[in-house]
Amino acid sequence: MFGSCKTIFALIFAMFISAGCAQNSLLDGSRDPHLWLEEVEGKKALNWVETQNKETLGEMTKNERFRNMEQASLKILQATDKIPSVSMEGKYLNNFWQDAKHVRGLWRRTTLESYKQKNPKWEVVLDLDKLAKQENENWVFKGGNCLAPEYKKCLLSLSRGGKDASVVREFDASKKSFVKNGFYLKEAKSAIDWIDENTVFVGTDFGANTLTDSGYPKIIKLWKRGTPLEQAKTLYMGNQKDMVARGYGIDYVGGRLAVVEQLENFFSSKKWIYKEGKLQSLPIPDSAELVGFFQGYFIVDLKNDWSVGSANYKQGSLVGVSQKVLANQKVEPSDVQVIFLKNKKSSILHTAILKDKILINTLEDVQGRLYQVTLQKGQFQNPRQMNLAPKGSHLALSATSVFKNDFFFSLQDFLNPEALHYYNDKNSSSSKIKTLSSRFNNKGMVVRQKWAKSKDGTMVPYFLVGKESQIKKGNAPTLLYAYGGFQVSLTPTYKPLVGKLWLEKGGLYVLANIRGGGEFGPSWHQSALKLKRQKAYDDFIAVAEDLIQNKVTTSKKLAIQGGSNGGLLVGAVMAQRPDLYGAVLCHVPLLDMLRYSQLLAGASWMAEYGDPRNPKERDFLKTISPYHNISEKPEYPDLFLMTSTKDDRVHPGHARKMAAKMKALGHDNVFYYENTEGGHAASANLQQQAKMRALSYEFLFKTIY
């Protein structure tokens, strides 16, 4: 009646094979009719992109409003009275500058005394526009790493079109020229840093089996000046499933600490100190971050609780670990001192090591504050708050040096432009040296911090910004922005383009500090990891509902915006609650969460989202994957997807496939634009930035205003 055992086993086996094939098809894309759009430079895919761009630009750029917004954006971005941000390197302050004349930018420097003047005298070190023209290359400057304490020898990263992959070339800042036969790496996602003037750590694409699944270096080598890269000596080899292996230096008064780090993922790494030709393990938790070295102590930021003998050190604290642990290879309670202990409403935003003190830039209820700590007679003193920020203003460290006690910090908020201050340690006083001119008229505008109750009862803070008269109307066009991932904190900062293009016109802006971010420390981030990711989306939905319930806006007048991880956020909540929003701005997003780990750098994010190859995590990822949860039935809000062909971090296929699938399902309210260069920033210069901003706000005016 039931057949033979052999038949039954065959049927069971077939069932497992069938289930396995179905699961694998989700991972390999064999059932995805839009898989061809993942071929980044494929002719068919690029023809599709060209058609989409033509349609979108034809719709978005046809009126005077777009042109006015593009010009207003460009004027702000190219303004010559911007505050030039600087790094403190030796006797110079270095700056990278772009304006209308210098599209690709100038790498330049000045002295402190000159910088304090209204019109500093800048000395050009490298003209990127001139270099690109001379070499017939589309160079985008990705930064320079100069060797302390002289800061003369530098490793410059130059990207073609803005990609993460860069060419590395040695540059002599004193001679303002590239070093003949100096250190040079061809285009790759490399990890390179100085050990000393004649030796570097190098990780790059050495050939077959030298990169991790994430596409980053797996091998770290020692490379001596004047020798071919092929002769570099292998120092460390990581695992294929790691995110990256890297070597780097940490400067301190009296020397340079050489560190080798094996990052299993963003949140876990093993660390070694390279000394006298050997690697010595640094016995601190894999989850902890090494932020510096100060007077014989490793300065460590704890992302989880740490037990040492009978002593327990709390998550989110900053501790000092004696250098003695290197020799002993064991940590005793006497080796550890607490430097800063967080509370429930605070988190460490940034830690800076100075010559004689440590600065701790914190967030307290998402407002920046500053503390200093000194070491006296072998004991870290209690943190002393530096009362440098007036009430309501956000303080952020701007530039510091391990060789000085003076530093730069900025004060700003949503409505008041950045003011740059210089702190003179000798006089224990600060002075305002530069103030950004107002970029928009803030008359009648207010900032309010509010709290929404999430699905599980957690209170989630958000900032509401705009004209008070519009808030009272009850149906103001409102733009809600969030990120909610990788422990990134969103703070109350001056946003000139938001102000000029949106707030001035009567729009409201909302910044939500949802879980997944770092606003309240590591636990705020960890509460939305992997299988708990829905909590971040619940937080965002709660803020949207709070805005509607409190009659700030309506669902038809509410737009949401996010980029990268934030693009996944807005894609997920659009799929889950299409009734809640009128429009969605989705930039350089992740959207196919069953294939993300196989695309470009995607494998490096599995500690954040989960592994699609793990059945339990795959099942959860399918529930939040926007690409797999859109269908023909619901009426979705208007959607504008933006990405870049040259984005070699988040694959443009995510946005491409989402647009194609939604249009195939009959949703004709989907717009798509792909910049052909620009990397993950989706723009390679200020003109492109202006265009992208104008396109975004034109979309908002067309849909919810």
Give a quick rundown of the structure:
With 705 residues, this protein is α+β, with helices and mostly antiparallel strands.
What do you see in this structure?
With 705 residues, this protein is an alpha+beta fold. It is built from 16 helices and 41 strands. The protein has an eight-stranded mixed beta sheet, with helices on both faces. A hairpin with a 2-residue loop joins strand 18 (289-294) and strand 19 (297-301). Helix 3 (64-77) packs antiparallel against helix 8, helix 3 crosses helix 16 and helix 10 crosses helix 11 (565-576). It is globular, with a radius of gyration of 26 Å.
Report helical residue fraction.
10-25%
How would you describe the shape? globular
Largest sheet: 8 strands, mixed
Give the N-to-C terminal Cα separation: 69 Å
Q: Determine the structural class based on helices, strands and strand pairing.
A: alpha+beta
* Tally of helical segments: 16
Unreliable stretches = 1-23
Proportion of residues in β-strands: 25-35%
Write down the overall mean pLDDT. 94
Biggest sheet, strands in spatial order?
A: 34-35-37-36-38-39-40-41
How many beta strands in the DSSP annotation?
41
Radius of gyration equals: 26 Å
